[in-house]
Amino acid sequence: MKIQKEQISDYNKNGLESHNESFDFLANKLTKEGHDVTSIVSKLADFQVAIPSWALGAGGTRFGRFSFYGEPSSLEQKIEDVGVLHALTQTAGAVSLHIPWDVPSDYNAIKELANGLDIKFDAVNSNTFQDQKNAKESYKYGSLSNTSEAVRQQAIQHNLDVINIGNKLGSKALTVWLSDGSCFPGQNNFQTAFQNTQDSLKDIYKGVPDDWKLLIEYKPYEPNFYSTVIQDWGASLMLANECGEKAFTLVDLGHHLPNSNIEQIVSILQLKGKLGGFHFNDSKYGDDDLTVGSIKPYALFLIFNELVYGMENNPQNPDLAWMIDASHNVKDPLEDLIQSLEAIQEAYAKALLIDQNALKAAQSNNDVVKCQEILQGAYRTDVRPLLEKARLNRGGVLSPINAYRALDIRGGLIKERGKNTIATGL
Ligand code: AOS
Ligand code: ZN
Ligand code: ZN
Question: Would you say residue 4 has pLDDT above 90?
Fold first, then answer.
């Protein structure tokens, strides 16, 4: 499945007039307020988010999984799906692979396919939370933290193998998310588990190429329910600092206990030059992996405010690896991802509208009311015409969801792949 340029321009014809009207209206208003609309639109157009290879099939829960049919059953088909998303939205120009779910059989062919669809290979993800077929050791009681040296060695070697695979594809980062921890008090010695993890990560770090990053993801609980070894950003940052300058913390929005101030975490990590990666999703209770912006869009906007501030004021922090880490079991996964991409762009656009100088002035005058007015003034702006313009400028569609439906993409995928295909992943 590949979307042709003519399909996109044909689809856009109907909406162009109305888009032009609403864009001109908004652009005039913003220009009068002192905004550089062209620069905002080009920042939006440049903002690309990686699609995780494991979110292209229907998500599931431990209670069940309901297919949306036409799922990609090979890595090639997964990349084609990302190609569809990117052709429509022009914001999904990268894919993040999970190993061993997505080991390429022909590297050149995969690279060629991705290249033809304008898709880059972003961070590669290792998997030491499941036992692999024919593996000698089991991760039942942990991987990098395990009390057994043999298990730790197997997990370290797996991460080195993942770097090797990523290298052949042009990836520049390894993301390590560990499920290691304990389900019951007393099961683990916290200090031993942390020390083992630190030593193992340092061994992996030795194999991280100079132009790569090691991204260390944290999570407070699940699948372990009493303790997780890398439970929060403090633990992740300590480990990243122990490893060295190529190691960074990765923030996943769903990996915080309720009411955590994620924007503050993001802000301080950037100040310290240690925020390396970002997983977008939304949640009501825990790591729900809900569509980005579906539950707490204002929180997402506040996070983007800090990200924009960091991107503009913290040269000590590297460019971030952006990825969506959401997939749901009651939505067509591609529609879910389109909605997430749109929510990310919307929050980013609104954050770009914040008058940073006025905010700074209001902050120094302790004008609390003005500070809130500035933030909420930006948040209440309907920025969708800016998103449409950014997409149009890059050759995308005015409304990705409507186009996806109008072009009957899922129907086409089912025709091509059949009903009963199943994607590897969660
Ligand atoms: C797990 O909860 C983390 O969010 C991971 O980033 C990711 O979802 C996982 O590696 C996929 O299995
Ligand atoms: Zn994640
Ligand atoms: Zn997660």
Answer: yes
Task: Report which bound ligand comes closest to the CA of 54.
Answer: 1
* Closest approach atom of ligand 1 to CA 222: 2
Q: How many angstroms is it from 177 CA to the middle of ligand 1?
A: 6
- Compute the distance from residue 162 Cα to the ligand 2 centre, in Å: 17
Helical ranges in 317-355 per DSSP H: 333-352
Q: Which candidate, 404, 283, 290, places its Cα nearest to that of 338?
A: 404
> Would residue 422 count as lying in a domain?
no
Please give the distance, rounded to the nearest whole angstrom, from the Cα atom of residue 231 to the centre of ligand 2.
Answer: 13
B/e letters for 119-136, b = 16+ CB within 10 Å, e = fewer, are bebbbbbbbbeeeeeeee
Which protein residue's CA is at the shortest distance from atom 3 of ligand 1? 177
Atom of ligand 1 at shortest distance to CA of 252? 4
423 within a domain of the structure (yes/no): no
For 218-274, the pLDDT digits (tens) are 999 999 999 999 999 999 999 999 999 999 999 999 999 999 999 999 999 999 999
Closest-lying ligand 1 atom to the alpha carbon of residue 175 = 6
The tally of domains found in the chain comes to 1
Q: Which long-range contacts (CB under 8 A, 24 or more apart) does 311-315 make?
A: 312/356, 314/270, 314/271, 314/273
Distance 11 CA to ligand 1 centre (A): 36
Asked whether residue 96 is domain-assigned, the answer is: yes
Full-prediction pTM beyond 0.90? yes
